[in-house]
Specification:
Length: about 475
């Protein structure tokens, strides 16, 4: 939650050009994404080199690279030709020298679609520019050759995409894929079944709140005895009032947030069990001491999973066909879609959006997707429990398929936006990349009906269901 009127830094996280460079679509999609060179295009890269004209006899990418290797063209000219043929934004910009060099040197680096390559240096600008181009091609050419099966022979011609050729996997690869798929399908089958059974038991005891089940989120503990739902929550609203100074208002009642509140109650109970003087009660705790330090950890063989009946709001709701188009506008749109999102009065905004005016808001909460991303780094246990137990992460995030057809947005926003942060974290913390997939929904979405403002939460060991008015942020008893 953010205080009203405060500053909201528009952190974009990792470079999204690099993120989607690793998320290239399959061959047919690459052919559609790489725009054709039928229209001339200008590049703001010091305006060097001859323009690469399109025509029936123009060379393709492979021929251009072969000419460069034979010494028939220089590195700078090849970069300009590739930029026009593959339609990427090219810039060769002046930068600072690296290392402890004696004398005066010029330094340049190549920037392709926002990705900066190694710095080249020389005694004059021409030499430095040429060296920077050579260093960039050392990285770029192998990448193009690795993608030769996905890029058409002549990407500057308007031709139908080639059908991808499926290579025969080796026996070891086939065994690995089969065992992985079997493990994935087994987990996917058991977890939603356990959630559905627990949800049915709760709704049979509280039929008045059955309409709330469409937004269900649940945490499931896997152990040698099977799968057990230990925390469950529902809800789609946030409180409309100002922030409470005494902590008696639930500001965010979205399903995964209320389920996490219930999970924390479950963790506190098991922490008390561990420190119980009764040996039989202490044995029932999910925690144990370990040799890595003073903090407790989950017992060996116990893992945690998260189920959500619908996509979390925020960056996970990225349009399924949105790709990193080199034509900059799409790249800017991608940065906007994948940036920090906030929930205000039932609506979700990117902090980079011009539609978002935080000065007029009473309560601002981080979106559910951004909270999940944070929890996958800091753990789901919260700050206070971090003094007693190691960070707790979920091993898989499963989403109901009734209103969701793919999980690309979740995979990118949760697993890749903070990639590489682990070396900067304290001991015990890491970036946990969960298994993400679609499973059968445990409850149908209520179409046409007004959204249910109540949020429910329950954890294993609770005597009753807690019901929170999402708009007021208070339990029904209050």
């Amino acid at each position: 939650m953010f205080p009203a009127g405060g500053s909201l830094p528009g952190s974009r996280g990792a470079c999204f050009a690099q993120i989607f460079k690793r998320n290239l679509p399959v061959a047919s999609e690459i052919n559609a994404t790489h725009k054709l060179c039928s229209a001339p295009r200008k590049h703001d890269s010091n305006k060097q080199g001859k323009r690469f004209e399109s025509g029936p006899n123009k060379p393709n990418v492979k021929q251009l690279i072969d000419r460069y290797r034979k010494g028939e063209t220089n590195a700078t000219s090849l970069l300009h030709q590739l930029a026009q043929c593959l339609q990427f934004n090219l810039e060769i910009k002046e930068t600072v020298t690296t290392g402890n060099l004696q004398g005066f040197y010029f330094a340049f680096c190549v920037v392709i679609d926002g990705v900066e390559y190694k710095t080249g240096m020389g005694v004059n600008k021409k030499e430095a520019r040429h060296k920077a181009s050579e260093l960039a091609l050392e990285d770029l050419i192998p990448s193009l050759e690795n993608l030769k099966s996905a890029i058409p022979e002549d990407p500057c011609r308007d031709v139908p995409p080639l059908l991808p050729v499926k290579e025969e996997p080796s026996k070891s690869d086939a065994h690995f894929c089969r065992s992985t798929n079997e493990r994935k399908s087994f987990i996917n089958l058991r977890i939603p079944r356990a959630v559905k059974e627990q949800l049915s038991r709760l709704m049979s005891s509280y039929p008045a709140f059955s309409d709330c089940s469409g937004s269900t989120a649940a945490f499931v503990v896997q152990s040698s005895s099977g799968y057990e739902v230990v925390a469950l929550g529902t809800g789609t609203f946030g409180a409309k009032d100002c922030a409470s100074s005494n902590g008696r208002i639930v500001h965010d009642s979205h399903a995964v947030v209320t389920a996490r509140r219930a999970l924390m109650r479950y963790l506190y109970r098991h922490l008390l069990l561990f420190f119980s003087k009764n040996a039989s009660l202490s044995e029932k705790s999910i925690f144990e001491k370990n040799s890595r330090g003073d903090l407790l950890s989950l017992k060996t063989g116990i893992t945690l999973h998260l189920y959500m009946n619908q996509l979390p709001n925020g960056a996970a709701e990225i349009p399924s066909k949105l790709r990193l188009n080199p034509l900059s506008v799409s790249a800017w749109h991608m940065n906007n879609e994948m940036s920090l999102h906030v929930s205000v009065g039932g609506k979700v905004f990117s902090v980079l959006s011009s539609d978002f005016d935080h000065s007029a808001c009473k309560v601002i909460s981080m979106s559910a997707t951004d909270k999940i991303t944070q929890w996958q780094v800091l753990g789901y246990q919260g700050a206070l429990l971090s003094h007693f137990i190691e960070p707790i992460y979920v091993q898989s995030i499963l989403i109901g398929d009734s209103c969701c057809g793919e999980t690309r947005g979740v995979e990118v926003s949760v697993s890749q936006r903070v990639e590489g942060i682990t070396p900067q974290l304290p001991m015990h913390y890491c970036q946990m990349r969960p298994l993400i997939g679609l499973v059968s929904s445990v409850a149908a979405q209520q179409e046409g009906s007004s959204p249910e403002t109540h949020g429910l939460n329950w954890s294993e060991g609770d005597a009753s269901l807690e019901v929170v008015d999402g708009l007021e942020g208070k339990t029904m008893q209050e």
